[in-house]
Amino acid sequence: MTPTQNGDRQIRNTRHPLGVRITAGLLGAGSLVLGPIGYLRAIAASEGSAAEWYTLGFGVSVGLPLLAAAIATVAGDRRAALWSVALLGWPVVYVIAIHLALAA
Fold first, then answer.
1. Cα(95)–Cα(101) distance, rounded to whole angstroms?
2. Longest C-alpha distance within the chain, in Å?
3. Contact assessment for residue 32 and residue 62, using Cβ atoms and an 8 Å cutoff
4. Which distant-in-sequence residues (6+ apart) come within 8 Å of 87 by Cβ?
5. Region class of 7: left (phi > 0), else alpha (psi between -120 and 50), else beta
6. Which of 52, 54, 65, 60 has the alpha carbon at shortest distance from 25?
7. What are the backbone dihedrals phi and psi of residue 47, each rounded to the nearest 5 degrees, phi first?
8. 41: how many CB neighbours lie within 10 A of its CB?
9. Which residues contact residue 85 at a Cβ distance below 8 angstroms, ignoring those fewer than 6 apart?
């Protein structure tokens, strides 16, 4: 006999797919904006601090999409997780774009 049939309250699902997608979207947007900014700061930095900016730029570019994918996976939202994993190709795009822009 289930708890509902026994007279207990029905257990509600507390997952909110829209909230998961908003969270994944905010983390993805942060990755799209902060990654190139960190990389540009690394290029413009002196020898002493360039390594830190490279680390921060790529950490944001890779870490935030992985965090978004983990959150979406745990929440059961496969589409948001797939889009988050697809953002892992973003560092390749912006590094190439930045170097082409600087070479011109």
1. 10
2. 74
3. no
4. 28, 31, 32, 65, 68
5. left
6. 65
7. -60, -30
8. 16
9. 65, 69
Q: Which two tokens stand for residue 93?
A: 């795009």
Domain limits, the chain: 19-103
For the entire predicted model, the pTM comes to 0.79
pLDDT digits (tens, 9 = 90+) for 43-99: 999 888 898 999 999 999 999 999 999 999 988 889 999 999 999 999 999 999 999
Q: Concatenated DSSP letters for 86-103?
A: HGGGHHHHHHHHHHHHHH
Identify which of 82, 57, 51 has the alpha carbon closest to the alpha carbon of residue 69.
82
Q: How many residues does the chain have?
A: 104
Which class for 84: exposed (0-12), middle (13-18), buried (19 or more C-beta within 10 A)?
A: buried
Tokens of 7: 């007279």
